[in-house]
Specification:
With 312 residues, the chain is mainly alpha-helical. Helix content is 69%, strand content 0%.
């Protein structure tokens, strides 16, 4: 479906109404289930706490995951309403349901708000602290859309903080103290992915970048490359320290966990390579579409699970 064909279903995007022209696929694209992969950060504390086979902890972690899926879907819907004008200038985002006139802005606001509130309710039943972190996640998103997204560097820090909140919620769900090393690794990795994504947007949009995302006008490929290199180095060092000095590493009792660094190195280098291709940039789409990245993530998970849970 091309951009013109999409808009053709509604001559006036701002006056779109929900009816026979709105398909389940349109609603799915509004709530963006593929983006839920980001919410797997919630399971990080469960995996590294050694409690993955504790059915109670697993149920609570899954509940926190569902809460973030609902909250993030609500945020995506509200963001699409706020960004609908700039999205129409983007070569990929212009086919989003609100920008393309397939779902009315008012309808998207009502649906998005309802889904986000449902996420808060689910989070509260998991644990009040999980609800706190989901609420903070929604507040950061509001601040991001109102102001932070146009502030250089702080825009990416705001995005990274949302991943740290997922880790904190995952720890709260199973009632464990989050490792500072795990929080640092998650936050630094999110910063690395955020700045490399900005670089891809800068190259992809070219002269139209200011019309889609104003903050991009203040970035340059050279600056973003330098930021990516610094963050890549610090992230890897931090991960090595986690595998050697954390409570999880002490519980393992050997240095076997540190060997998982090989998977991490290959993964971040592979992603950096893909970012410099025209089709790279979005962490979610890049991961889902690249077989090598999927294999290295799966290998990392399997190796860490074998080391931590020692089934043999």
């Amino acid at each position: 479906m091309t951009g013109n064909e999409t808009v053709g279903r509604s001559s006036d995007p701002s006056s779109a109404v929900v009816g026979s022209s709105t398909s389940p696929a349109d609603w799915a694209r509004l709530f963006r289930p593929p983006q839920w992969i980001k919410n797997f950060f919630v399971f990080g504390p469960l995996l590294f706490s050694g409690r993955a086979f504790d059915t109670g902890a697993l149920a609570h972690a899954f509940g926190a995951f569902v809460a973030f899926c609902l909250a993030s879907s609500g945020v995506y819907a509200l963001n699409d309403v706020a960004d609908r004008e700039s999205d129409r200038l983007h070569p990929i985002k212009r086919v989003r349901p609100v920008a393309a006139g397939l779902i009315a802005p008012r309808t998207a606001v009502v649906a998005g708000t309802g889904v986000a509130l449902a996420g808060l309710v689910v989070a509260w039943f998991v644990h009040p602290r999980v609800a706190l972190f989901v609420g903070l996640y929604l507040a950061v998103n509001l601040a991001y859309n109102e102001r932070l997204k146009i502030v250089v560097v702080l825009d990416v820090f705001a995005i990274a903080s949302m991943f740290v909140l997922r880790l904190l919620a995952g720890a709260a769900a199973i009632d464990v103290k989050p490792s500072v090393w795990l929080l640092l690794c998650g936050g630094l990795l999110a910063l690395y992915l955020g700045f490399t994504k900005r670089r891809h947007e800068l190259v992809l949009l070219g002269d139209d970048l200011a019309g889609h995302r104003a903050v991009l006008a203040h970035y340059s490929p050279a600056f973003l490359d330098q930021m990516a290199m610094v963050l890549l180095s610090v992230t890897v060092v931090c991960y090595i320290m986690y595998t050697l000095e954390s409570a999880t590493a002490n519980a393992v009792g050997t240095d076997l966990l540190s060997y998982s660094t090989a998977f991490v190195l290959y993964g971040v280098f592979r992603y950096l390579f893909l970012v410099h291709q025209r089709d790279g940039g979005s962490p979610t789409q890049t991961l889902l579409n690249d077989r090598q990245l999927l294999l290295v993530v799966a290998g990392w998970l399997i190796y860490c699970a074998l080391v931590i849970y020692r089934p043999f």
